[in-house]
Every structure is written in C-alpha cells, then in structure tokens.
Write a structure and sequence with these properties.
transmembrane helix; Rhopdopsin 7-helix transmembrane proteins; two-stranded antiparallel sheet; 7TM_GPCR_serpentine_rcpt_Srg; mainly alpha; membrane; transmembrane signaling receptor activity; Nematode_SR-like; 12 helices
Length: about 350
C-alpha cells in the first residue's frame, strides 16, 4: 500500500474547507466561552457559585481540548510539514507526550463535569435547601474529585512516549500515536468512560425532568424553562459523543469492521466539536446574566452602554428585600440565578 504524507489530491480541498469552517466556528466559540467565564466570575450578585464553578471548569477543559485537538491533530492530518515532523518526531519521545495526555484526559474530564452539572441541578430540584447547602459547602471538593476521576481511565498513558507516523489506514496525512508502557487499551477505557458518564448525565437529567413534572411545568418561570433547555442540550451533546465513542470501539475490537470504523472516524471530529463547543452558545442564548455581560463588553468598545431596565431592578429588589424566605422562594432563587440576575 502506497502511504502518502498528504491526503489524496481530490480530497485535499474538501478537507481544508471543512477544517477552515471548523476552525472559524471553534475560535468564535472560544471567544464566547471566554466572555461566559468573564460574566460568571465578575457577576457580584451570583448566588449559585457551584454552577458557575462547574461551568467555568468545563469551559476551560473544552477550550484546552479544542485548541489541542484542532491545532495539532487536524493540522497533521493534512500532512503539512510532514517530512520535518517525521524526521524529528518519528521516534517515540516525550516532546509529544503532553499532546497525547491532554487529548486523552480532557474529553473524559468534560464528561465528568457534565455529569457533575447534571447532578448539581438534580440535587437542587429534588432538595432545594439541602442541595444548595451541600454544594455550596463542598463545591471545591466536588471539583477536585472531578479533576481526579479522569485519571482512573487514562493514568497508564501519562508515562508513555508519543510519536508521529504516517496514517496507518492509508488515507494520507499523519497520526500521533503512543508507545504503550502498560498493556491497557486506551480506546476501551475511553469508551467505558464515555458510555458511563453519558448515561449518568442522561439519567440525572431525566430524574430532574420527572421531579419538575410533578411540580407542574405550567408553574415554571421562563428562567426555569431556560435552565431545563440548557441541561437537555448538554445531555444531548454528551450522548452524541458517548454514542460515537462506543460505536468506534465496537467497530474496532468487537466486529472488526474497518468500513464502519472509517465512517465513525470521519464523523468523530464533528462529534467532538458538537460535544465541547455548543455549551458556550447555549449559556449565552439562555442566560440573561451572561448575555447582558457580553453586551456590556461589546458596548464598552462601541461606546454604547447596555443597562438592565429599572423595572427589572425594582422587581429584583422587591424579591430580595421584602419577600419572605419561604421554601419556594429559596428554590426559585437557586434555580434561576445564573439565568436571570443582571
């Protein structure tokens, strides 16, 4: 088989077009993620600190994974500087180990934090007062655990050397592989993590919807509906990635269907983008807090000042200062905070 440094000429233009589009959309999402993080960090009246912390951690991981995957993986897939890379990185070395470690760690960590966000929302819906107390008190512990859990599924890759090689499938371009130190399959553990945390996120979201259904959806405010929509989208995108990872492992190691594997691999780059980038846009579109902060950032540069209306401020003041601290009020405040307060 004649393996080339570059993809077939007839496919090159199409691949470049796809990667340019993905790069534009991805970098725009990076900007939106950055503005979202800024909004959540600088929002003084933010009571729901647990959600903000979980989202910020998830956003940072998503940014890291996208930049790592797009700028390196898809770059070498086109075969640019192929001979140079093969000459200096064709043998196993530790210089490329950070890329492989990040590429293995980040998607699992994002899955874990999606599950934590779903668990956080389920707890608050199921037990508003107690749930808030637990998450506010132990949120840093939960976050620390969230960063440690992925190591269970990829620790054996950390001491490995990585290297560049020509695409073993004969499609042209380069692949970045690693030399095993331990006899564990990274694909198997990645598939297990994807399916496990994907299903946990799904079940927690369904549980939240069941609890809310018992409270009657007609009584939900617009902010509560926005919260539900945000989590449904997050769960959907998580399941798309989990399903893709599961099918990929199934095609390689169970049925050994190379045609199915090739099809899944072609879709996988889109599944990764669907998995890590839309949360930037859903929060921006659904959260009044984030949207107003973003408008203020752009307005500041354009010389336009965006302020919330006096009516909104008056309503918020009355709710905080005069309303009794009832069970329903505390629940409403916690559920809506990131989506309504300005």
């Amino acid at each position: 088989m004649n393996i080339s440094c570059h993809p077939p000429q007839e496919e090159m233009a199409g691949l470049i077009g796809v990667y340019v589009f993905q790069g534009f959309y991805g970098l725009l999402s990076v900007v939106v993620y950055t503005l979202n993080i800024r909004a959540l960090r600088h929002h003084r009246g933010n009571l729901d600190k647990s959600f903000s912390l979980l989202y910020i951690c998830c956003a940072v991981l998503s940014l890291t994974y996208f930049l790592d995957h797009f700028l390196i993986r898809r770059f070498v897939k086109l075969g640019f500087f192929c001979e140079f890379i093969l000459k200096y990185f064709g043998e196993p070395n530790y210089w490329m180990m950070p890329y492989k470690t990040v590429a293995s760690y980040c998607p699992i960590a994002i899955l874990v934090f999606h599950t934590l966000i779903a668990a956080h929302r389920f707890c608050i819906v199921a037990a508003p007062i107690r749930g808030v107390q637990i998450w506010d008190r132990y949120r840093r512990i939960f976050v620390s655990i969230g960063f440690l859990i992925p190591l269970i599924f990829m620790w054996f890759m950390i001491p490995c050397k990585s290297y560049a090689e020509l695409d073993s499938e004969g499609n042209g371009g380069l692949d970045i592989e690693y030399k095993k130190v331990f006899g564990f399959s990274s694909s198997l553990f990645a598939a297990i993590a994807a399916v496990l945390f994907g299903l946990l996120t799904l079940f927690l979201t369904i549980g939240m919807l069941i609890v809310l259904a018992k409270l009657s959806f007609r009584k939900l405010s617009q902010a509560e509906i926005s919260l539900i929509v945000f989590e449904i989208f997050m769960t959907l995108f998580t399941m798309i990635y989990a399903f893709t990872q599961g099918i990929l492992y199934y095609s390689i190691y169970i049925v050994k269907d190379m045609e199915l594997k090739a099809t899944v691999i072609q879709f996988r780059s889109f599944a990764i983008d669907i998995f890590i980038l839309p949360q930037a846009w859903t929060l921006l579109c659904l959260s009044t807090t984030v949207r107003r902060s973003t408008l203020r950032v752009f307005g500041k540069h354009l010389g336009i000042e965006f302020l919330s209306t006096d009516i909104d401020n008056q309503k918020h003041t009355r709710m905080v200062s005069t309303a009794p601290a009832t069970f329903s009020l505390q629940k409403s405040t916690v559920l809506n905070n990131n989506f309504t307060k300005s």
